[in-house]
Amino acid sequence: MQVYEVCLRLLGDMLRLKIRFSQKVNLMRLSNYFLPVLKENPAEAQIVSHRLMLRAGMVRQSSAGIYSWLPLGLRVLNKIADIVRQEQALAGALEMLMPTLQPAEIWRESGRYDDYGKEMLRITDRHDRDLLYGPTNEELITQIFRDSVRSYKELPRNLYHIQWKFRDEIRPRFGVMRGREFLMKDGYSFDIDEANARRAYQKIFVSYLRSFKRMGLQAIPVAADTGPIGGDLSHEFIILAETGESEVFCHSDVLTQPVPEADYTADLTPVIDGYTQHYARSDEMHDAAKFEAEVPEDKRLTARGIEVGHIFYFGTKYSNAMKALVTGPNGKDVPVHMGSYGIGVSRLVGGIIEACHDDEGIVWPWAVAPFHIGLINLKPGDDATDALCEQLYQNLTDHNLDVLYDDRDERAGAKFSTMDLIGLPWQAVIGPRGAKAGEVEIKNRVTGEKQTVALEAAIKIMSQPPA
Ligand code: 5CA
User: Fold this and answer.
1) pLDDT at residue 14, rounded to an integer
2) 3-state secondary structure at position 414
3) Does residue 410 fall inside a structural domain?
4) Residues within 6 Å of ligand 1 by CB
5) Is 268 helix (H, G, I), strand (E, B) or coil?
6) Of the candidates 205, 234, 201, 232, which has an alpha carbon nearest to the alpha carbon of residue 219?
7) Of 358, 386, 418, which marks where a domain is finished?
């Protein structure tokens, strides 16, 4: 062999080693992770999602209704936000980011500064200027819009952001479900007239049905009250859960309506009509006589639920008050027609757990699971077991799967119960016996079913959501 060949080979070996080394460092090892699980049920948690979020080390309360998101919880929050982003993009909405602190002046312009009452957290800066921690963003987006857009030719526009909000709720409770500080996706549409604005509303209606479905949820759109946001057309999206704070009254056929494709060039009216032709209302709008007159007895559904989204068409309420005008095709200035569209991103984390758990803990739907697979090493330090675990980890990540590797020196029972508690869709267990045979025991967290298979088969099975 030539000297240069030896050198090349040595170089190759070194590179390979370096890659292996860096990959090793990157493994999401539980021994390096921050997962402060609790064995006992925290006394302050009244509902299962709050209990499980605390027990699974996802959040910690900082003060009433205000939470820190720990690594595991943040991964879920981000996955939910990403689904929202993808669906908003398909519907033609653009992401931006507005600040949490807003000047009081624009709220005085709209007339809401005084109306909002004690729910608004008001702050004075060192120059004695009045600020507030935004509870929503109609004013700020209207200000941005009116300062930048002059002509109908720049319409329609739909802008959204995902940002923390603050509402000084009188009774923050149920963990992240009714927080004081919470993460919301809020979007705002701008159109030249009512017909176009209603179409913008329909697009977001469809995008919400799609987003919630992708999170593993069935959301029921119900006619809703507009409250402090204003306007005359509004729907809440409610997922059914016994612990929900809302009450829903609806025709059960609403539950069997198909979730539409993301074809936003099509006429969306038939899809929307499919949902809205039937009686479906939240408690605030409920009319018992109408419900009984319109819905046959065997189709009447009355249930509790969690409001995970809320959309509004309010026409020119803010554009009139704040003079957000555009020049129309005839050269005349007209106020833009607006709608606003909210999703409770942090509330959804709790909502999904309410819908998806069992006695052992959380059972994450695939699309929002913090990791897809929990890999358990039954004998860390045993060379063959370590090697097979690391190989499986590598192969799974090569398939774009998120893996959490329990390499801790702990009792097997403790490892199993932690994995059950944090609810990853698949568990893969490897011990010295399996390592010898090149086999992995995999467990479906949904059904509890276990099977022992060769490495390749394990990867194939775990690349898909468990049935
Ligand atoms: N400006 C409009 C639409 S962007 C708006 O603020 N709508 S909202 O008040 O209905 O809020 C939107 C969503 O935020 C709600 O559907 C709910 O899912 C979530 N949300 C509201 N208040 C809270 C809270 N205190 N804690 C957690 N999530 C909340």
Assistant:
1) 61
2) helix
3) yes
4) 136, 138, 167, 169, 178-179, 182, 184, 186, 229, 307-310, 312, 340-342, 344, 346-347
5) coil
6) 205
7) 358
Protein residue with least CA distance to atom 24, ligand 1: 178
Compute the average pLDDT of residues 31-41. Answer: 96
Q: Is residue 174 part of a domain?
A: yes
Q: 75 and 103 in one domain?
A: yes
Atom of ligand 1 nearest to the CA of 237: 16
What's the 42 CA to ligand 1 centre distance in angstroms?
26
* 340 CA to centre of ligand 1 in angstroms: 11
pLDDT of res. 458: 98
pLDDT tens by residue, 391-443:
999 999 999 999 999 999 999 999 999 999 999 999 999 999 999 999 999 99
For residues 382 and 260, membership in a common domain is answered with no
Residue 227 alpha carbon, nearest atom of ligand 1:
9
- Domains: count for the chain: 2
Residues 121 and 164 in one domain: yes
Q: Which of 115, 310, 349 to mutate to test the pocket of ligand 1 (most atoms within 8 A of CB)?
A: 310
- Indicate the SS3 state at residue 14: helix
Helix (H) or strand (E) holding 191: strand 181-191
pLDDT of residue 410: 96
Give me the pLDDT at residue 445, please.
Answer: 98
Residue 30 forms part of a structural domain? no
Q: Indicate whether 298 and 241 sit together in one domain.
A: yes
- Residues 251, 126, single domain; the answer is yes
Q: State the average pLDDT for the chain.
A: 94
Q: Residue 72: pLDDT above 50?
A: yes
Same domain, 345 and 442: no
Q: Is residue 327 part of a domain?
A: yes
Nearest ligand 1 atom to alpha carbon 228: 9
What's the confidence (pLDDT) of residue 8?
67
**Ligand 1 atom at minimum distance from 348 CA:** 18
Q: How confident is the model at residue 5, as a pLDDT?
A: 74
C-alpha to C-alpha distance for 243 and 46, rounded to whole angstroms = 9
Q: Find the CATH number of the domain harbouring 444.
A: 3.40.50.800
Q: Dihedral of CA 177/121/343/68: which sign?
A: negative
How far is the centre of ligand 1, averaged over its atoms, from the C-alpha of 79 (Å)?
19
Give the integer Cα–Cα distance in Å for 100 and 200. Answer: 26
* CA–CA gap between residue 152 and residue 337 (Å, rounded): 11
What is the per-residue pLDDT across 190-207, written as a single tens digit (0 to 9) for each?
999 999 999 999 999 999
Residues 164 and 139 in one domain: yes
CA–centroid distance, 184 to ligand 1, in Å, is 7
Q: CA 449 → CA 232, 354, 426, 445, distances in Å?
A: 50, 22, 10, 8
Which domain covers residue 422, as residue numbers? Answer: 371-462
Residue 143 confidence class, pLDDT cut points 50, 70, 90: very high
The alpha carbon of 25 and the centre of ligand 1 are apart by a number of angstroms equal to 40
**Chosen domain end from 328, 358, 388:** 358
